[in-house]
Amino acid sequence: MESLEGLSSYAEGVYEVTDKCPVCGNRTLTIRGVVYNTPYFGRLLLEVMNCSTCGFRYMDITYLDSKGPVKLTYRVTDRVDVERTWVIRSAEAKVYSPDLGFTLAPGSAGEAMITPLEGLIYRLIQYAEAMRGLEGEAEARRLAFIREANEALNGFREFTLIIEDPTGNSIIKPPPGREGRLKEDRLEVPQG
After folding, report:
1. Residue 122: its pLDDT value, please?
2. Domains of the chain: which residue ranges?
3. Residue 4: is its pLDDT beyond 60?
4. Burial class (CB in 10 A: 0-12, 13-18, 19+), 16
5. Where in this protein does the record put region Disordered (predicted)?
6. pLDDT band at residue 8, thresholds of 50, 70 and 90?
7. 41 or 173: which leads in pLDDT
8. How far apart are the first and last CA of the chain?
9. What are phi and psi of 12, to 5 degrees?
10. Chosen CATH of 11-63 out of 2.30.30, 2.20.25, 1.10.730, 1.10.3470
């Protein structure tokens, strides 16, 4: 175990091991890990892998804690909500709005994010703009989404933001004084 000196005050433990590289097969893969206890996501394992023979590199974040499945629902009503609401999404969470017609689903390369709601909307608009070249009804829906998302971005369109997270590690943090509009439903754990 290496020293925690020089790491964040959130660091709980460090390890380093050598293993077989999945690319070249040599036992020159160094795996370094740090366990962090973070305020929003709980305990995380950050791992970096590097092979000194072939140069293979990989980084991964593993959530060690789960607060249980949760569904967060927040009604965005104006520009203050857009500018001052924070969205903290774990990689396992689905973020969507039935009103605006978008869904960011988790996947094998799910992306955790910490962003103001404004940043999320900008990202969605960029995704839609990058989809140029659609035809017919799909193009009409794309253009309508961009128009409606811009209206929402500027506070001219109300919409509901929903996050469903099986780990319970996602958060919608409304502006001060608006926390009462956030609805949090604990979901049942799927029986397997």
Report:
1. 96
2. 11-63, 70-186
3. no
4. exposed
5. 167-192
6. low
7. 173
8. 36
9. -110, -30
10. 2.20.25
Instruction: Say which DSSP state 163 is in.
Output: E
What gap in Å lies between CA 23 and CA 54, rounded to an integer? 8
List the structure tokens of 181.
């509009």
pLDDT tens per residue, range 151-165: 999 999 999 999 999
Strands (DSSP E) along 21-175, which ranges?
29-38, 42-51, 57-63, 70-76, 86-89, 94-97, 102-104, 113-116, 159-165, 171-173
The tokens describing 131, both together, are: 């989809």
* pLDDT band for position 3 (cuts 50, 70, 90): very low
Secondary structure (3-state) at 31: strand
Q: CA-to-CA distance for 99 and 29, rounded, in angstroms?
A: 48
